[in-house]
Design brief:
This protein has 171 residues and is mostly beta strands. The chain has a single domain, classed as Cyclophilin, CATH 2.40.100.10. The protein is 12% helix and 39% strand. Strands 1-2-8-6-7-4-3-11 form an 8-stranded antiparallel beta barrel. A hairpin with a 2-residue loop joins strand 1 and strand 2. The longest helix has 12 residues. The radius of gyration is 15 Å and the shape is globular.
């Protein structure tokens, strides 16, 4: 179990290491390394998902910028594992390339079956689900309702910063 302590409340996640072993191992490595501390939920789309785990705020002396953190190498996409992008599931974010997930993840606010694996083509790979929010969906839903804007070229960024303050790995 993972607890993401945010400045908006705690989100408890149970990982599915049986069905998504490489993805869970990757996520846990970032958790253990303290990577997610002080990162943002930087993309929030009500009725779809909230995304985080890749950007931090950095003061360069003139203004506070949103800066992407350096990550480990991408992992193989395990979206064919049978887990679905349903409300409350957590999945890996990636680029258009199927095997490009690194640190960023998202929590589904609705059943997003169009994100599920359908076949091993570029379009059909889908997004690998690796766990479920088991407590704190009220926090997730409150974050989803925040007003967003475009910040430093990024769309759907909450006006009120949503910061992961710490990550706790509980047994």
């Amino acid at each position: 179990m993972i607890i993401l302590t945010t400045n908006h409340g705690d989100i408890q996640i149970t990982l599915d290491e049986k069905n998504a072993p490489e993805t869970c191992q990757n996520f846990l490595r970032y958790c253990k390394d303290g990577f997610y501390t002080d990162t943002l939920f930087h993309r929030v789309i009500d009725g779809f998902m909230i995304q985080g785990g890749g950007y931090e705020l950095r003061d360069d002396g003139f203004c506070v910028n949103m800066v992407e953190k350096r990550t480990y190498a991408p992992i193989a996409n395990e979206a064919y594992n049978g887990l679905k992008n349903v409300t409350g599931s957590i999945a890996m974010a990636r680029t258009d390339a199927p095997h490009s997930a690194t640190s960023q993840f998202f929590i589904n606010l609705e059943n997003n079956d169009f994100l599920d694996h359908t076949n091993k083509t570029n379009h059909g790979w889908g997004y690998a689900v690796f766990g479920t929010v088991t407590a704190g969906m009220d926090v997730v839903n409150a974050i989803a309702k925040l007003t967003t804007f475009t910040r430093f070229g990024h769309e759907d960024v909450p006006i009120t910063d949503v910061v992961i303050e710490k990550v706790t790995i509980a047994s």
